[in-house]
Fold this protein.
Amino acid sequence: METKAPKITDVARLAGVSTATVSRALSKPETVAESTRNAVLAAAEKSGYRVNLSARNLRRQRTGAIVVLVPNLGNPFFSEILAGIETALSEVDINMLVVDTRQAHAKPQLVLEYLHATRADGIIALDGSLPDEILSVASSGNGAPPIIFACEWTPRGEFSSVRANNASGARMAIGHLAELGHCRIGILTGPQDNVLTHTRSAGAEAEMAKRGLALDLSHVFHGDFSLESGARAAQAWLALDLRPSALFCQSDQMAFGFISELARHDVSVPNDVSVVGFDDIGIASRFIPALTTVHQPRQQLGLSAAQMLFDHIRTNSSPAIETTILEVELIVRDSTREFAG
């Protein structure tokens, strides 16, 4: 004998509310009292009722999904941001599709196919260096879903964004090293065309100028946020006659590469050189030595970006461009020490 699928009326009967209240509790939970919402959810679970998301999204003319554009899925930095986005998504009936954008410059069509309302309700971009071809379509308003930038952003100023206070973090890093007595401070930068590189470099240079410290251009090493570029910077540091006694690395990954390469040459951190990173990814506290670094609230970055995107989706309009800046914190660990002379 075939068992009938439970209906919304069954949920309403068990919860002791109207079908309209059940509908609101399941589709717009923020519009009903918490006690009512809990009663409806308990009734839905007891009856085995399941919302037909496909039908609901069709009625709303939505896909029920957002796309997150990530510049490098292999980089552990992005995991906490994605976790924050997922936390926000768990509160609503929206799924997440993650797309790696490393080939976007060579093949923009790989990203362009998602820039239509029939493919996604909205987009969160963690990549601030998306090609102009993609950005132009995203800002055209011709059927493109709303896009929010998180962590990175585009200098074009056409999109809302959530970011950490990168300049402040860089100033904290330099200030910490200066207060330890270091005068020869080097900088390991990120990619030259990246907004994070520009902002962190500007903050670091401003703090050095404030403290009367000169930045020797031979002490500026160019990286790309990767372990490998950190190792290359260590080789360049070793080749110098007059080495900086401290180094501000604009990402933890580069700091790890720098420290590990120096260890291969029997150079000690922090005894021979102090190192500060930026990001405070999971391994930073477990690395040897534990890394002094600038902590970014990465889960909050993802959560705030998702909530901002939901607001754009709900209004179904073009709200004013807004920028949310989250504060950072210097975490002092074992990779820095007072200058020994």
